[in-house]
Amino acid sequence: MGLRRLLLTWVALLVLLSMTIAASFLPIGNWRQLANMVIAVAKAGLIAWIFMKMREETALVRLAGVIAAVLLLVLGSLLASDYLFRIDSPLIRIDGSNVRGPLMPDTAASGERSR
Q1: What is the pLDDT of residue 86?
Q2: What is the DSSP secondary-structure string of 12-70?
Q3: Distance CA 68, CA 51 (A)
Q4: pLDDT at residue 85 greater than cutoff 90
Q5: What pTM was estimated for this model as a whole?
Q6: What is the mean pLDDT of residues 12-23?
Q7: Residue 85 to residue 4: CA distance in whole angstroms
Q8: Strand segments (E) across the chain
């Protein structure tokens, strides 16, 4: 691997890093996460292609890398869809409390009587 290729990759990674930092200051709202994810995928692709020498590997190894990336993308999209489309439950709240009180056992189920 030539020194010129390594230096160009290093410069490209620094440019992508500066784009990530610049995107954190842009007033683009929720699009910031998408921009940072696209930049992160570009950085990961550069690292895999150059430093992990994926361009010199056999087709089977490349296929395994593509399958791993696609599965990671599918899992991430499933996680995002679960987060976006989850409705609030009337019985359980995120803060740990429920309709009976904050994390207290149900007295009727445990056999104790209230006085």
Answers
A1: 76
A2: HHHHHHHHHHHHHHS--TTHHHHHHHHHHHHHHHHIIIIIS-GGGS-HHHHHHHHHHHH
A3: 18
A4: no
A5: 0.60
A6: 95
A7: 48
A8: 97-98, 101-102
